[in-house]
Write a structure and sequence with these properties.
The chain is mostly beta strands and about 160 residues long. About 10% of the residues lie in helices and about 40% in strands.
């Protein structure tokens, strides 16, 4: 099928692995992201894609500050909580270490680094929504670690 052959090459586009986390009034939500990219130097802006309905979507869209935690090759244990999503009754933030950043972002101290962000715009070109966010602060937790690189078998699925 033509779609499969087109999607196969798209899966070869490398990306990082990130945990996007945001604190609501009563809980912390987050999800595993791989569609994240810097798009501006001044101001410092990143774009990330999120599928509506994922944890954190409504909070980010409501204007809550959030953190993009960069997964490193030194420690992948916390990623298992997010790989296939999680039951809202078993929130992974009850088990993994984190701290709150100066701007209210949820910083995973097991990550390589993290950026606290504020949404400044969005667009919905397909089944994911692009969030454009200004980076407000950043943190390095494991300087010697290398960012994890993710390749997919196909561009048609995670």
């Amino acid at each position: 099928m033509l779609q499969d052959s087109v999607a196969q090459a798209v899966g070869n586009i490398p990306s990082g692995l990130f945990i996007v986390a945001v604190k609501g009034d009563e809980s912390i939500d987050g999800y595993l992201a791989s569609f994240v990219q810097q798009i501006s130097f001044n101001p410092l802006i990143i774009a990330l894609a999120i599928k509506p309905g994922r944890p954190a979507y409504d909070l980010i869209k409501a204007g809550k500050k959030f953190a993009v935690n960069v997964a490193g090759d030194h420690d992948k244990t916390y990623l298992k909580h997010f790989w296939k999503g999680y039951d809202p009754n078993h929130n992974p933030f009850n088990e993994i270490p984190y701290e709150m950043g100066v701007n209210g972002g949820v910083l995973l101290t097991q990550a390589k680094s993290a950026m606290e962000c504020q949404m400044i715009g969005s667009a919905r070109p397909g089944d994911h929504e692009l969030i454009f966010a200004e980076v407000k602060s950043s943190y390095i937790f494991n300087a010697e670690s290398k960012p994890l690189i993710h390749l997919r078998k196909s561009g048609a699925d995670y």
